[in-house]
């Protein structure tokens, strides 16, 4: 009888042991998964310091833990990485290509996250495939919308040089950032950080061209800048030999060596920003852009007045951070962008013609009265 009971007990004991081991393994794996950080949305991974392969399609990444509030049977949808090559671009006797590493995020199974496509890394390579420059971009979907970047590349041709123009734009913006690369001392390098869109259109072949030469080693490119009330054209000097960009207004004071000078700039589509005042008002019109030029004339402005914006006079400055080193992956993609604006402790003057009378105005009160309100203002 004891022998029979023992024979029944041994198999039962083995079953209990197997169940205990399986339970322990499952519990350990579940605890490990619960300890992983949970993402609030989907963010595509971008390369860190090591350059990415230049001629391959990356395998799909492993699924990540689902974000809070999102129920899927297979976690977050897979990421797929592909590659696109732009070029070749012939510059100073050598060929270069722009390599775009793109990611696709499929829509979540519950429909809360839409599919997303965008560039996560851009590389400029030479004919041998060596990476000369790299910049990374985010790709994400937070449930409210997709944030993705578009990258284009073109030849920029001038009288005194040829370079590479890289244009970048986030999906939430309508304007492009421009960055110019050129060959300096035999090496392709950035000549600036990204800056506001150039006022230049490509020709039929997709080539962008400068306005014209500025001396024997530089060319002029125009950039548009909004003041909040209207837009002006800012001429930029592109020095191919020294590899730098500077402001290039036609200004006698700058030619005389004055670093801070009031220079004149052209208006861009001035009629598109003027709004007719709803009632009769007036502006203070100066004979010259200087408050010490005499007592201003009070000029009546009526809803039916004929108004022309002629020119803008200001002391502009261009600031350029360290553009030789692209931002890190965790930083804003165009952190190194150049900025153009009115110099501190200075004021701009607007030359106008009101019903045939020409003069200068400045200050918020007169600009409002003329029909150039700030975006949040209304004309009374």
Query: Strand portion, in percent?
Result: 35-45%
Number of domains: 2
Number of H- or I-type helical stretches: 3
Name the average pLDDT.
78
- How far is the first residue's CA from the last residue's CA? 108 Å
Biggest sheet character: 8 strands, antiparallel
Instruction: Report the uncertain regions.
Output: 1-41, 45-77
Radius of gyration: 31 Å
Proportion of helical residues:
10-25%
Structural class by secondary-structure content: mainly beta
Number of strands: 24
- Morphology: globular
What is the N-to-C order of secondary-structure elements (H for helix, E for strand)?
Answer: HEEEEEEEEEEEEEEEEHEEEEEEEEH
Short description:
The chain is mainly beta and 380 residues long.
Any key phrases for this structure?
380 residues, mainly beta, 2 domains, eight-stranded antiparallel beta sheet, five-stranded mixed beta sheet, 3 helices, 12% helix, 39% strand, globular, disordered N terminus
Secondary structure layout:
Elements: H1 2-34, E1 42-43, E2 79-91, E3 94-105, E4 116-126, E5 131-136, E6 140-141, E7 146-147, E8 149-157, E9 162-170, E10 177-184, E11 187-190, E12 208-209, E13 212-213, E14 218-226, E15 231-239, E16 244-247, H2 252-255, E17 263-268, E18 281-285, E19 297-301, E20 307-314, E21 316-319, E22 339-342, E23 349-354, E24 357-361, H3 364-370
